[in-house]
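ESCALATION

Customer reports they have been waiting on this structure for their group meeting. Please prioritize. Original submission:
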Amino acid sequence: MLGNFTYCNPTKLYFGKGALRNLSNELPKYGKNVVLIYGGGSIKKNGIYDEICKILRENGKTVTEIAGVMPNPTLEKLYEGIAIVRKANADLLLAAGGGSVCDYTKALSVSAYCEEDPWEKYYIRFEEPTCTILPVGCVLTMAGTGSEMNAGAVITNRKTKQKIGHVFEDEAVMPKFSILDPMYTLTLPHYQMVAGIYDIFNHICEQYFSGDDDNTSDYLAEGLMHSLLHASRVANNDMQNYEARSNIMWTATWALNTLISRGKSTDWMVHMIGQAVGAYTNATHGMTLAAVSLAYYRSVLPYGLPKFKRFACNVWGVDPSGKTDEQIAEEGLAAMAAWMRELGLAMNITELGVTPDMLEGIAQSTILLPSGYHVPDRDGVIEILKNSL
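Update from on-call: job pushed to the front of the queue and completed.
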């Protein structure tokens, strides 16, 4: 482990069947006014909404709702939420949904009493909150983003065609508690399930493909990848397999709660490119990552060859006998591609609605991060996008 770091994660997790009953343990810690935040209404169809409302009533809470949070939460929706939260004089923001709802709720927690435009402050200048941060709780219904145990919040500006995430440094932005019942994920459509699985996998990769030291975080990452690969194949054949779905949900949390990033430089360029694709197409987040990741990793492979060789052998079981390092590394990415096709993931950006005339704009919207084995310039991003068509 090279370098020094600080690690703190204050989020309390309740995991397993019937975990929602623990909401009653948390609600007395906060004031009377709760804003319940959710998406398109699926929690009303599957009964989760009624369960939550019953517990809120039993605890004497006054409830205000923000419904209709979209898969890629917009700046307009954030502004709408700010007005509602202020009027409600909220004491707790309770997210009920997947990663987008959790992301939106955290963005709202730092924006409700922000004295400036939150887009400019948090997503252009990437400043930290200087205002009151409202506490957040999460009831998770989809596994993928890890938003239930981190301080990240992604918002899309439709006018500027920018989709930007801010991982806040202030641990007060992290959810105070999150409730994870794998049963809630069993009603997801296959497309959403596998998109979430790839989001998890790519979160691990973004932290794994950086650095050359002997790092404990890399061994943890490989273990998480092994668990996810096994569970994903089981769930792909039997979406109602509780054990597989519970392991996927737990892996998602540990993939992005900052644990395996400790001692790592990390490389989030697949997310930067994928989010720019999402800003132009409104495509499902995990699918945008899948569609660009192979082209990106092939472009940086020569600069991080030892780690890609290790990835091939330790994660995909590639036999290195009689092969060059390059051949081993390429075989690892080929195995990864085969698994992606097995799940039914998007393998190119064309199927997500991208056309060649969009590439320049997508490249311009891509944030270039100075980390990883090799940082592409704008022309490099365009080349990756061309190889992703």
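Sent to customer with the following note: The longest helix spans residues 216-237.
Escalation resolved.
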